[in-house]
Specification:
Helices cover 30% and strands 26% of the residues. With 421 residues, it is of the alpha/beta class.
């Protein structure tokens, strides 16, 4: 095995995992390094944050996924630098892993546009820890409101603000509205959860800006039908512990969810190559780093300009999967002494859930919304989930939730506030 070409994969997300799976049986030795021991299905993190699913439903141990691949080794570690000169990935514990080929796919974090102090007040949704923290804050707000006697303070507790009108923001806002309207409607004695306020703030002229205008309009109409206050052209200028300021408007609230903007991993800066404004590597036609064809950058970390779609490949799950699969073919070709073909993204469309039985779909040649779009969303997300167990459990929980309007993962973990023990 030591004589085989060494492939190091940084990151066990969609791109890294599908690359590792694509190298099954290839004449290479693969080392996959990730700071977490699990692969996470990020598109459904909001469902953990809003108590529709449990964390284990959308995550699977990486070792378990790859256990049948004899040429893959999994390392739990945090890569702090890619040393392209020495051809090795250096970890924070002082160790290093040498490579002949390296694929960098560390994912991304939310961008707070230079206001990093807002992260503690408005967590985003990029990890299980993020989702559990958001869930804790949401359900604690209802619990504290139940015991609050001051009317203004109670309304502040029952006001939820979502910043960012992309797919994640729209899905979170819709889920919050349904929690208020259905799941908690009869659970409290001193408050009516249906009186809670959900506000969605978007700095741009419309929500779901990447979708056609008619679908953006439909999504806004459907959200308002659920009782969500949708505010477009509303830039957040300040977040306080008890309020949000946006476009001259002050919203008293204790619960803010951030779904606006992304920034790439700082690991990419160690490659010493040009980056775009989000910190992503501007890659070549084969996803490689300029001047280093042995180093590929994939997924959210790559700024890939695809002529066939007339712009950058979007930072979405299907694109990361396709990049991972392509990288496996590219490495196989290089090992065999063959020329790599360019990567091209196949845009299969976009889907965003508005609420129970409602979604919008922007598919090749088709633009529609409603129940059928929601069914397509379910089928695709079940398909992309890793592991038969997770697919079955998620499908059962979705069916139960649809029939009963219930959300069974409403657990509050961690600190419950002042005076908690």
């Amino acid at each position: 095995m030591a004589a085989l070409p060494q492939v190091v994969i940084v990151g066990g997300g969609f791109a890294g995992l599908y690359l590792a799976k694509g190298l099954k049986g290839a004449p290479v030795q693969v080392t996959l390094v990730d700071r977490r021991n699990h692969h996470l299905f990020q598109p459904m993190l909001y469902q953990v944050a809003t108590a529709a699913l449990n964390p284990s439903d959308i995550a699977s141990p990486i070792r378990s996924i790859l256990r049948r691949q004899r040429n893959v080794e999994v390392v739990l570690g945090d890569v702090e630098r890619i040393d392209v000169a020495a051809r090795c990935a250096r970890l924070t514990d002082g160790t290093s892993v040498s490579y002949d080929y390296c694929a960098v796919a560390p994912g991304a974090r939310h961008s707070y546009f230079g206001r990093g102090e807002w992260e503690a007040l408005a967590p985003g949704l990029k990890s299980l820890e993020d989702a559990l923290e958001v869930r804790r804050r949401i359900f604690l707000a209802f619990e504290h409101a139940e015991r609050e006697t001051d009317v203004q303070r109670r309304q502040q507790l029952l006001t939820f603000v979502v910043v960012g009108g992309g797919p994640t923001g729209v899905e979170v806002a819709g889920a919050l509205a349904e929690i208020r309207r259905f799941a908690l409607a009869r659970d409290f004695r001193h408050i009516d959860p249906r009186e809670a306020t959900v506000v969605l703030l978007e700095a741009g002229p419309r929500i779901l800006a990447a979708y056609p205008p008619e679908l953006s309009h439909r999504a806004k109409t459907d959200l308002r039908r659920l009782g969500v206050e949708v505010r477009e052209n509303t830039l957040v200028t300040m977040i306080h512990p008890n309020a949000v300021e946006a476009a001259g408007w002050r919203i008293p609230t204790n619960t803010v969810v951030w779904a606006a903007g992304n920034q790439a991993s700082p690991l990419l800066a160690t490659l010493g190559v040009p980056l775009d404004r989000q910190g992503r590597v501007i890659v070549e036609h084969d996803c490689s780093v300029p001047g280093h064809p042995e180093v590929l950058v994939l997924g959210d970390a790559a700024a890939f300009n695809d002529d066939k779609i007339g712009g950058l490949v979007p930072a979405v799950c299907p694109a990361a999967i396709q990049m991972g699969q392509y990288a496996a073919r590219a490495i196989r070709a290089s090992v065999a002494g063959q020329t790599r073909r360019p990567f091209h993204y196949w845009n299969k469309g976009e889907l965003a859930v508005i609420g129970r039985g409602d979604a919008v779909a922007n598919l090749p040649g088709l633009r529609f919304g409603g129940f059928f779009a929601w069914l397509i969303w379910i089928v695709l997300h079940i398909t992309y989930l890793i592991g038969f167990r997770n697919r079955v459990l998620v499908l059962i929980q979705w069916a139960w939730s649809y029939v009963t309007y219930a959300r069974g993962a409403r657990l509050i973990t961690g600190d419950i506030g002042p005076g908690s023990r």
